[in-house]
Write a structure and sequence with these properties.
The complex is a heterodimer of chains A (329) and B (347).
Chain A (H helix, E strand, L loop, with lengths): L3 E6 L3 H12 L3 E7 L6 H8 L3 E3 L3 H4 L8 E6 L3 H12 L4 E4 L11 H14 L13 H11 L1 E3 L3 H14 L4 E11 L5 H5 L1 H14 L3 E11 L7 E9 L5 H16 L5 E10 L2 E8 L11 H22 L12
Parallel strand pairs in A: 1-2, 1-4, 2-3, 4-5, 5-6, 7-8
Antiparallel strand pairs in A: 7-9, 9-11, 10-11
Chain B lengths: L8 E4 L4 H5 L6 H13 L4 E3 L20 H11 L4 E6 L6 H9 L4 E7 L7 H9 L3 E7 L6 H14 L3 E5 L7 H14 L5 E5 L7 H10 L4 E4 L13 H11 L7 H15 L8 H9 L5 H12 L3 H10 L8 H13 L9
Parallel strand pairs in B: 1-2, 1-8, 2-3, 3-4, 4-5, 5-6, 6-7, 7-8
Helix pairs in contact in B: 2-3, 2-10, 6-7, 7-8, 8-9, 9-10, 11-13, 12-13, 12-14, 13-14
The chains are: A alpha/beta (329), B alpha/beta (347).
Chain lengths: 329, 347
């Protein structure tokens, strides 16, 4: 079967784990890995696994994009270089799956809104669901840009927003708060140095994607040995007294949806109801591809990114989506 | 060791750590009353925020009746000599909140991380310095890192711009030798102009002794709270510490009798429970558990029928750290299930 050819930008833990997940995909094929350090372990491993590599950053990839027919690129670098990477690749008609907190494109949590993003791309609609205004070239470009780039929010977002959405789809949620506890060894230097960006992006996504009127995200980094498996606590305050039976059913159904791509996504305790508060205590164990199992936080990002890319790949292969180059501004 | 004439800067925690002991329910009037009494007694720094610091208002940590901004601006406007400080834990509080605290009059900040995670604080420490704030790197649960590790983490905070590095005994677990080893290790690697501080909890009754040990090893800043109003068995009781300092000739610049009066007349009447070493707070100190977990564990114990001491010991075993208050209820529920007191919801 034909596969959509992909490039991975960033040769760290996330990029390396992505190779494994993409190689297993029936519709994706990892072709290029892009790094900036010729001596990096990630690039060496990528070569061993049969990928082409460059240590010259995204510019090292650009000359090969068309001849190698790269259609989807995953960016696991940092929020600060993502914008530039995305612009260059979008101009060549490559769709970006953004794993940094840059959040240039629409936010995507697969079981919540992936279908919606794919539909919008195939219908040429902009992010908010409105048809692009024909007269303004600028807004059309903005709309296409938004669809040629989807953002995966953050590990905490991927792990918690499905639950917030499961509650808000039953009744209105005035406030949702999530606490993500991460094993110290699973939190890379980029996240550490920019913890505020993680907080802002995740808090915003709890509102925009999760459907809570106000969202708040808390992150804890725990150095215990052996490393703790990622834990997440999700608390929602509903406007009216919670319909416990329906909310519990909705949450359990959502957990099953997430388990389709993250089998280690597990309910530990709850849902617990206390007046208008609904609390759910989750654990995320990874698949243990390249990253250890405790790093469920990284695994859920790479799994969600892969799932997202697969959905777009299926649409491209079926001829429902045609990727178009974004004209330079 | 002769500490005569040594100068030590005191930092009161009643209106921040003390919020924990009051379930975050301190009114603006009480804040003003306590802060003005501290100012009057010559205490140079007064910390004022939600117990969990900036960004602390949450389901996780409880909601205070007023915003941090309201507390800080009301108190700061009344201070004659004391500086208002705040706590900022990256991952909970952000630079936006620090800017807002500064705008309300805060001029000093403890930027706090777990004792092994200093590298989550560079942007916040740098930003505090940019604002011109008196900036401290605050290494929490310091018993969970060895002296060399604490020194290395302190050095990182110094490299981000911290002017003071604290050894923070959040669990009230340390003994004087533990404190001395960590303060000395910091003194060995930090620049001479970088100050060292110690923040104690009194869970093993060691608040005063540990603070004196810290000074012997080179610390020049000590956190405490008048009447010991703070999490667990409270912070190092500041008036007691001031009295010991006076006996030893250590120069704190505070008026001892005013602090004693304040403890008796203002702080003790404010307490909802007598903050002291009791069965649960002693368990914190003995098991090395974050002091703030105390009241949360008591509530979970009541709800799920598992004794608070059992929950605390289990949290210590699982090496839960500050900020993981959600894991208290989670642990209590798991224990209740194992004991046949609770059914699992999920199929």
């Amino acid at each position: 079967m034909k596969k959509i050819r992909c490039a991975l930008i960033g040769s760290g833990n996330i990029g390396t784990d992505l190779i494994y997940k993409i190689q297993r995909s029936p519709v994706l094929e990892p072709v290029w890995m892009v790094g900036i350090d010729p001596a990096s372990e990630g690039l060496a491993r990528a070569r061993e696994m049969g990928l082409k590599t460059t240590a010259d950053g995204v510019d090292g990839l650009l000359p090969h994009v068309l001849e190698d027919n790269i259609q989807i690129a995953f960016d696991a670098t940092s929020a600060y270089v993502h914008a530039e990477n995305s612009r260059k690749l979008n101009e060549l008609g490559v769709m970006m799956i953004d794993l940094t907190p840059a959040a240039i494109g629409p936010l995507c949590v697969p079981p919540v809104n992936l279908r919606q993003h794919a539909d919008q791309l195939s219908q040429g609609r902009s992010q908010d669901g409105s048809a692009p205004s024909g007269g303004s070239e600028r807004s059309e470009r903005g709309g296409l840009l938004a669809q040629m780039n989807v953002n995966m929010i953050s590990c905490a977002g991927q792990a918690t927003i499905p639950i917030v959405s499961a509650v808000s789809s039953i009744q209105s949620v005035a406030y949702a708060e999530i606490v993500a506890s991460l094993a110290s060894k699973s939190v890379g230097p980029g996240t550490r140095a920019n913890l505020d960006e993680f907080t802002y992006t995740t808090s915003g996504a709890i509102e925009k994607v999760g459907g809570a009127r106000k969202g708040k995200a808390l992150a804890i980094i725990n150095p215990a040995e052996p490393p703790m498996i990622m834990r997440n606590t999700i608390s929602c305050l509903t406007d009216d007294a919670p319909d416990q039976a329906r909310i519990t059913a909705s949450i359990l159904q959502m957990i099953k949806e997430v388990q389709k791509y993250v089998p280690g996504y597990r309910l530990v305790n709850g849902p617990v109801y206390d007046a208008n508060k609904v609390q759910v205590f989750m654990e995320v164990a990874g698949l243990g591809d390249y990253l250890p199992k405790y790093a469920g936080n990284l695994d859920i990002m790479t799994a969600a990114a892969t799932r997202t890319a697969e959905m777009f790949a299926e649409e491209i292969l079926a001829g429902r989506i045609t990727l178009r180059a974004v004209e330079p501004a | 060791m002769d500490l005569k004439g040594k100068k030590v800067i005191l930092h009161d925690m009643c209106l921040r750590d003390g919020m924990h002991a009051k379930r975050e329910q301190i009114s603006i009037d009480q804040m003003v009353k306590v802060a003005t009494a501290l100012d009057e007694a010559g205490v140079p720094y007064v910390q004022v925020t939600h117990g969990a610091g900036l960004g602390g208002n949450s389901l996780q940590h409880g909601f205070a009746p007023h915003s941090n901004e309201d507390y800080i601006s009301t108190v700061a406007a009344r201070m004659k000599q004391a500086k208002v400080s705040v706590l900022l834990i990256p991952g909970l509080g952000t630079m936006r909140e620090l800017q807002s605290a500064y705008d309300c009059g805060a001029r000093s900040v403890h930027v706090a991380t777990h004792c092994t995670e200093a590298d989550t604080s560079p942007q916040h420490i740098a930003f505090a310095r940019k604002l011109g704030m008196d900036t401290t790197g605050f290494l929490m649960m310091a018993h969970l890192n060895d002296p060399a590790g604490v020194a290395q983490q302190g050095k990182l905070m110094e490299s981000y711009g911290a002017q003071t590095v604290y050894v923070t005994d959040s669990a009230g677990y340390m003994l004087p030798a533990d404190v001395i080893a960590r303060v000395q290790a910091l003194r060995d690697v930090l620049k001479p102009e970088t100050e060292i501080g110690f923040h104690g909890h009194h869970n093993l009754g060691m608040g005063i002794a540990n603070s004196i040990a810290a000074i012997e090893a080179g610390a020049t800043r000590i956190d405490g709270s008048v009447g010991g109003l703070g999490a667990g068995a409270g912070n190092t009781p500041l008036e007691v510490f001031a009295a010991v300092c006076e006996r030893m000739g250590i120069d704190t610049g505070v008026d001892l009798f005013k602090l004693m009066d304040m403890a008796e007349e203002i702080i003790v009447p404010m307490m909802e429970h007598v903050v002291r070493v009791d069965r649960e707070s002693l368990t914190l100190g003995f098991a090395g558990v974050y002091s703030t977990f105390l009241l949360h564990s008591k509530r979970a114990a009541e709800r799920f029928g598992v004794p608070a001491r059992d929950i605390l010991v289990e949290l210590g075993r699982k090496k839960m750290i500050g900020g993981q208050e959600d894991m208290i209820m989670d642990t209590a529920m798991t224990m209740a299930r194992e004991r046949g007191l609770l059914q699992h919801v999920a199929a």
